[in-house]
From TrEMBL:
InterPro entries named in the record: Beta-lactam/transpept (IPR050515), Beta-lactam/transpept-like (IPR012338), PBP_dimer_sf (IPR036138), PCN-bd_Tpept (IPR001460)
Organism expressing this protein natively: Candidatus Fonsibacter lacus
Domain of life: Bacteria
Keyword Kinase set for record: no
Protein name, per record: Penicillin-binding protein 2
Coiled-coil regions listed in the entry: none
Record carries keyword Transferase: no
GO CC annotations, alphabetized: plasma membrane
Domain Penicillin-binding protein transpeptidase: 87-372
Keywords: Membrane
GO BP annotations listed: cell wall organization
Subcellular location: Membrane
One example GO MF annotation: penicillin binding
Length: 411
């Protein structure tokens, strides 16, 4: 026969926002079958003709997502970081307003997903997250009534040997005073003080508390890309280091969920990308009394006018009464046993103090100290904290607006 060209009609998905929601929306294959992200999770509903006549509402906000992504890109440049990520969530409903993981990718280009840029750091990344775990340790002790916020710990050492003489646990701040209250231990982020508190708690009590908060489980979010805490052997050494977030791992989204419970009055929340029924049954995981105490203590970490002078003053945005806790964790080495010299920094914040509504987690992957720019340390207080402050300044007015709308529908 004669040579000919045969034309066929084929539906192709186009994503005009390209990278903006890449880690959430995910990708489809050549047959429009979802292979990652929401596209995968809701694949059957999206392809169902009856369903396609309606829609379900995604909780993400386009304007806020763009503002957060811009701030994280600037942070990567400013701190010569490898990457960054953030999560913005309603602490009462679990609705996710923004989820960014950098590097990201243009979802219009179907390529192999083995590259690092395809890793969703918030939901799939599993990390040791450092001193943000101190708030969980102290909340547990308050819940068990082992301590109160004013309990005084006298003559704290600068070094303890729970893991043996060859692996001393040191105080990160050599200038900390020897006598600290439980509140000061949190605000000044004392390793030794937190170890002394968890010794009073014990292994089973702490495992049970973290389990209740969901630290060890996969998130409920509507994405297939979900990580889970790595198994750990519990003994007196790992209990001590877990008190300050070393040797214990989780995903950032599960950490955010746990913090939401600390500050929302004590209720467990389940992070979601789909608009929720506001009459959901609430499950209490800690007492309202403990939650109120934690909110007050976490405010002191951020309050630049507080005499204790906490580690997160650079996020104290006027008018928002931000609360939160910093964390700086040395990363596990990829080439040998033990740890590398690189760090992962994180800041979990919420606002307003009076009745927390929004939780913002910011994470910076391998930030550098750059004295020439005025960044004298690579600790969280020098990068994740000011980045969170910038984000809150930008998104606060949007969230407060009476015209605030969820702006992304899936059909």
């Amino acid at each position: 026969g004669e040579p000919a060209i045969e034309l066929s009609r084929r539906q192709v998905r186009i994503y005009p926002q390209r990278n903006l929601f890449s880690h959430v929306l995910g990708q489809t294959d050549e047959d429009n079958k979802g292979i990652s992200g929401i596209e995968n999770h809701f694949n059957n509903q999206i392809l169902n003709k009856k369903f396609s006549e309606s829609s379900f509402q995604i909780t993400l906000d386009t304007v806020i997502q763009s503002q957060v992504r811009d701030a994280l890109e600037k942070a990567i440049t400013d701190y010569s970081a490898r990457g960054a990520a953030s999560l913005l969530m309603n602490v009462n409903s679990g609705e996710i307003i923004s989820l960014v993981s950098l590097p990201d990718f243009d979802i219009n280009r179907r390529t192999l997903v083995s590259d690092e840029k395809y890793l969703n750091k918030i939901t799939l990344g599993v990390y040791e997250l450092g001193s943000v775990f101190k708030a969980l340790t102290i909340a547990n002790a308050l819940e068990l009534k082992i301590i109160d916020e004013n309990t005084l710990f006298n003559n704290l050492e600068k070094q303890v040997f729970n893991c043996g003489a060859s692996q001393p646990i040191n105080e990160h701040d050599k200038n900390l005073k020897r006598d600290l209250t439980a509140t000061e231990i949190l605000v000044k982020s004392s390793n030794i003080g937190t170890v002394k508190i968890i010794e009073k708690i014990g292994i089973e009590n702490h495992k049970n508390f973290l389990t209740k908060l969901g630290i060890f489980e996969k998130a409920s979010i509507e994405l297939p890309e979900k990580g889970k805490s790595l198994p750990m052997k519990w003994d007196n050494c790992t209990l001590a280091t877990a008190s300050y977030g070393h040797g214990i791992s989780t995903t950032p989204i599960q950490l955010a969920s746990a913090y939401a419970s600390l500050v929302n009055g004590g209720y467990k929340i389940y992070p979601t990308l789909v608009k929720q029924n506001q009459n959901l049954k609430k499950e209490r995981v800690i007492s309202e009394e403990t939650s109120k105490k934690m909110v007050k203590m976490l405010r002191k970490v951020v309050d630049k006018d507080d005499p204790m002078q906490g580690t997160a003053k650079r996020a104290d945005v006027n008018g928002y009464s931000v609360i939160g806790k910093t964390g700086t964790a040395v990363k596990v080495s990829k080439t040998s046993k033990g740890y590398s010299k690189d760090v992962m920094t994180v800041f979990v914040s919420a606002y307003p103090e009076e009745k927390p509504e929004y939780l913002l987690l910011v994470m910076i992957d391998e930030p550098k100290a750059i004295p020439s720019k005025g960044f004298y340390k690579s600790d969280s207080g020098w990068n994740a904290v000011p980045t969170a402050g910038t984000i809150i300044k930008r998104i606060g007015p949007i969230l407060a607006s009476k015209n605030y709308n969820i702006a992304l529908n899936v059909k």
